[in-house]
Write a structure and sequence with these properties.
This protein has helices at 30-36, 62-75, 88-99, 121-137, 142-156, 184-193, 208-211, 213-224; strands at 7-10, 15-19, 41-45, 81-86, 104-110, 171-177, 197-202. The chain has 225 residues and is α/β, with parallel strands linked by helices. It folds into two domains: 7-114 and 164-224, Rossmann fold (3-Layer(aba) Sandwich), CATH 3.40.50.1820; 116-157, no CATH class. The protein has a seven-stranded mixed beta sheet, with helices on both faces.
Length: 225
């Protein structure tokens, strides 16, 4: 491991790891940590190059972040954990569950996507434009380089084929907002591709964990219990 993750740890019981979205940090889950830690040993982790976790030297990709998660679990002697990932965190959790199925207990994918086609054009097109502009200036400006790297996660990743989802063996909750930036048919496609999955839509947009925590937390805890 070339990095040490910043994280919040709270509670006792089975490990539950929370993975935030693009450009965020573990504080995204401020409305979940206290609630979930009543029943689980919660770890809310800052991804590589996010929050207070350093960027390091390795590739800045969803697949690298999944390998970073394996390193985090090994470092903290977590044999198996429940994983809850939001947005890019959901994509990390999805890839981790495909590549390390023996390390995942239950899986919660909130607002995850297989590819850019799963994202509403109103959201995706400005990201693509911003990425191209940032790439042009990346050689001259460190700020532009970092922006291009961050936006690149949403342009080039996660790049998962629907048939790869059959590699997920964990019991899975696929959860999204009724007005999510991830297209509803795409969320349904993910749920259909995972053998043992449950699909739930919560009133709200992409950020239901933050904006509708009562319903979100209830759906997650019902699933985990």
């Amino acid at each position: 491991m070339d990095i040490r993750h910043n994280y919040i740890e709270k509670g006792r019981g089975e490990p539950l790891i929370l993975l935030h979205g693009n450009g965020e940090d573990c504080s995204y889950f401020q409305r979940q940590i206290d609630e979930f830690s009543k029943l689980f040993h919660v770890y809310a982790v800052d991804t590589r190059g996010h929050g207070r976790t350093p960027r390091g030297e390795r590739p800045f990709t969803i697949r690298q972040f999944a390998e970073d998660l394996l390193g985090f679990m090994d470092e903290h002697q977590i044999e198996r954990a429940h994983l809850l990932g939001f947005s890019d965190g959901g994509n990390i959790a999805m890839i981790f569950a495909m590549t390390h199925p023996d390390r995942v207990n239950r899986l919660i994918l909130n607002g995850a996507n297989l590819d850019t086609g799963g994202v509403s054009p109103f959201t995706q097109i400005p990201i693509e434009i911003g990425y191209r502009i940032a790439k042009i200036f990346a050689g001259k400006s460190e700020t532009a380089r970092l922006k291009a790297e961050m936006l690149g996660l949403m342009v080039n990743d996660p790049d998962v084929k629907a048939e790869e989802l059959s590699g997920i063996k964990a019991k899975t909750l696929v959860i999204a907002g009724t007005k999510d930036m991830i297209r509803e048919e795409h969320t349904r496609k993910i749920a259909e591709g995972i053998q043992d999955s449950r699909l739930v839509f919560i009133p709200g947009d992409h950020f239901i964990a933050n904006k509708n925590p009562e319903e979100f937390n209830r759906a997650v805890l019902d699933f985990l219990k």
